[in-house]
Amino acid sequence: MRSILTQLVRAPDGATVGSSDQDLLCINTIRTLSMDGVQKAKSGHPGTPMAMAPPAYALWQNVLNYDPADPLWPNRDRFVLSIGHASMLIYSLIYLAGVRDVKHGKVLDAPSLTLEDLTQFRQLDSRTPGHPEYHHTAGVETTTGPLGQGCGNSVGMAMAEKWLAARFNKPGFPLFDYHVYTFCGDGDMMEGVASEAASTAGHLRLGNLTWIYDSNRISIEGSTDIAFTENVQKRFEGYGWHVLEVKDANDLADFQTKLAVAKAETARPTLIIVHSVIGWGAPKKAGTASAHGEPLGDEEIRGAKRAYGWPEDKSFYVPEGVLEHFQKGLGARGAAASAAWKALYASYATEYPELAGELDQILHNRLPAGWDKDIPVYEASAKGVASRQSSGEVLNAIAPNFPWLIGGSADLSPSTKTNLTFQGAGAYQPPEWNGTYGGRNLHFGVREHAMGSICNGISLAGIRAYCSGFLIFSDYMKPPIRLSALMNQPVLYIFTHDSIGVGEDGPTHQPIEQLVQLRSTPGVTMIRPGDANEVAEAWRTILPMTDRPSVLILSRQNLPTLDRTVYAPASGLAKGAYVLADSDGTPDVILMATGSEVDLVVKAYETLKAEGVKARVVSMPSWDLFEAQPKSYRDSVLPPEVGGRVAVEMASPIGWDRYVGLTGSIIAMQSFGASAPADQLMKKFGFTVEAVLAEARKQAGKAG
Question: Are residue 528 and residue 598 in the same domain, yes or no?
């Protein structure tokens, strides 16, 4: 049993319940545009748009607080299509609603989508890709497609609204009170990330969040009964959600009543279970798996159009009056609401100029003045400090000067050192859990996957979000990190316990292949600093990056703090790699490393120097930043004529060959780790000064 109903509800024949002729005309326009787009592309998912067109229409036309003429209006309701495969549904809505285009943060006097754009669905360079993409198509609030991610994003969006309201709302000035609506499906309900996100939302009592669950009981393999028979209603009630049900997706009156009930419930998030028939109206494929992920075919489309009372020989047909009807509903309502908000904000800016200035910076993705003025400088120390510790200190030096920098960990802040400890930081919790929605410490629980997708949702509101965990558990977070990059969102991922230096916890907790994975993800900046001053420079480098996610890789064990009067300044980190120590003239060997291994190569360098070997040390904390430098700079750090090279990193060797060449040496992990004290592991796996010296001498000998 999956919900209140035990049997699939079939939509009745005839008109949509509770709709006018004009409503039905608009609904069938959405259906037929979606069918025609998929058919022309010979690829896509027509069934869900056909089934869910009535609820989507009712939400957009009659409920959504959204101004198509200003899709950047800060207090707009958010609509998330977590079932991103049903993208023709949102593209049809964007076109019919007349959503305006956006370029470089500016709203244009041009449509986001034209009818011609709908005909180019899934084609190269079109504005209507196979799954909705943020930034690519105005009106799309987040990139969706991997199921469950949109659900997680929507929780982050709802959290962001609560935080913005707590910080900026004042008596008589309700600047932020928007609602987040998410269309999700059976696939979302099966994905673990959605369950993690739902549990989080229930705990946080996010009454500004409504998920609309299309329960059509069909997946690619057939009926969901083959794999998914749980009681979704009871599960969500257990999470602390308010659960409602609509027995027929075509019943507009019932659905809108349930939307009103959901919005009135301010103490809990709401799940509305909507029963639909996938491919509704198709004579043979309605209610079948073949309506899910493939074109219907010409004959079936003609039959569906016949059932809708539609001209069978017309494609991409928009009847007269449909566009105008949307303008009189959503368009007029949204224009009035956004105009009222802008007038309210103008008065607010006069009354609270400092807060208005903050909000302007948030909305335009700018940093506050003086955000970095208290970043510490670390004195040389042989004992040093773990980079997770110095990072926590730097974070707590920055955060008081950066009021909209918020974040937390997956139940690991005592280990990742990401808790904000200054007075007034507070915990993000509902008042009944002894917190405030204005708190800056987020507690995600042991939910790494949802943590990443939630931070993407927070970031989409302009708030700078960070999250943290152990590097090994970045495996649970690959999808949200990848989506951060796809959306150009500046989420900061902080991962500690970065190597076999974890020690006794053993190979299950010792990362090996994770650095390769993160380095290979396009659009992600990864930094693995070698001492406390490189940590400080990493933060100074990362936070101004507003168009990409960053990953900070930190150690559990202490790292000696280098004497920067002897070695090069840590400011070289901003270029990704820099000459830390050098010889006179052309070096015989270049020693390169990241993170904790920098100390190893520095010690080897000092021995080689004493032996008269001309050696150079290159700290390489960020490959992607280094690769972004001009070739002249890269060649100055790694001269092509120097073939003697040694790279040292306690991780997979994959990738280092681009820097050491075919004849250089790589001291790296060739296997998983082991459970033992860290010093024993270093010896076992060859991360010793002696091992580095042995390889360096071999490489230096080639120069002669």
Answer: no
Catalytic status, residue 597: no
pLDDT per residue as tens digits for the range 26-52: 999 999 999 999 999 999 999 999 999
Mean pLDDT of 374-378: 98
Residues 149 and 172: their CA atoms lie apart, in Å, by: 36
CATH of the domain at 624: 3.40.50.920
Same domain, 394 and 464: yes
Final residue before a domain boundary, out of 539, 560, 581? 560
The 3-state secondary structure of 614-645 reads CEEEEECCCHHHHHCCCHHHHHHHCCCCCCCE
Instruction: Given the residues 141, 300, 448, 695, select the one marked as catalytic.
Output: 448
Q: CA-to-CA distance for 456 and 445, rounded, in angstroms?
A: 17
Residue 672: phi, psi to the nearest 5? Answer: -75, 170
CB atoms within 10 A of CB 658: 10
| Phi-psi map region of 369: left, alpha, beta (phi>0 left; psi -120 to 50 alpha) | beta
Domain holding 694, by residue range, is: 573-701
Residue-wise pLDDT for 312-332, tens only, equals: 999 999 999 999 999 999 999
- List alpha helices for 148-217, DSSP H: 149-168, 186-190, 192-204
Report the distance separating Cα 401 and Cα 390, nearest Å. Answer: 18
Residue 595 CB partners (closer than 8 Å, separation 6+): 387, 498, 499, 528, 529, 530, 553, 555, 559, 621, 649, 650
In terms of residues, how long is the chain? 704
551 and 584 housed in the same domain: no
CA distance 384 to 599: 11
The answer to whether residue 376 sits within a structural domain is no
Whether 397 and 420 share a structural domain? yes
Q: What is the DSSP string of 71-125?
A: TT-TTPPEEEESSGGGHHHHHHHHHHHTPEEEETTEEEEEES--HHHHHTTT-TT
d(C-alpha 566, C-alpha 501), whole Å: 27
Residue 524's domain is classified under what CATH number? 3.40.50.970
State yes or no: pLDDT of 616 exceeds 80: yes
Considering the domain architecture, whether residues 521 and 637 belong to the same structural domain is answered as no
β-bridge mates for residue 427, sequence order: 441
Q: In this predicted structure, what is the pLDDT of residue 15?
A: 55
- Burial class of residue 264 in the structure, from the number of CB atoms within 10 Å of its CB (0-12 exposed, 13-18 middle, 19+ buried): exposed
Residue 566 lies in a domain: no
What's the pTM? 0.97
**Residue type at 460?**
L
DSSP states along 189-202: HHSHHHHHHHHHHH
